[in-house]
Recover the amino acids of this structure.
């Protein structure tokens, strides 16, 4: 995804799909390979970080039109997620 470095995306699409139990469908345009396509289709689990890791894995290696503007996609909810305590439990 191309956006300013360090920015995070809104989470509305994620929580709407999760609440409505509607699947997200990944699509891409890979300018380097001159390919377009569809990828995984899944209903969000509510674990934002795990679901976004799944999306980041899918999009890894796909090059956009302006590769110099590529950055890692993060949702605001990932940035606000509490860190697990030493015992492995969340506070």
């Amino acid at each position: 995804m191309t956006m300013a470095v360090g920015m995070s995306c809104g989470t509305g699409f994620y929580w709407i799909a999760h609440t409505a139990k509607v699947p997200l469908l990944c699509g891409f345009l890979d300018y380097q390979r001159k390919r377009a396509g569809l990828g995984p289709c899944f209903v969000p689990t509510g674990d934002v970080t795990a679901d976004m890791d799944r999306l980041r894995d899918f999009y890894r290696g796909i090059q956009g039109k302006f590769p110099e503007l590529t950055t890692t996609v993060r949702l605001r909810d990932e940035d606000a997620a509490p860190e697990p305590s030493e015992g492995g439990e969340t506070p």
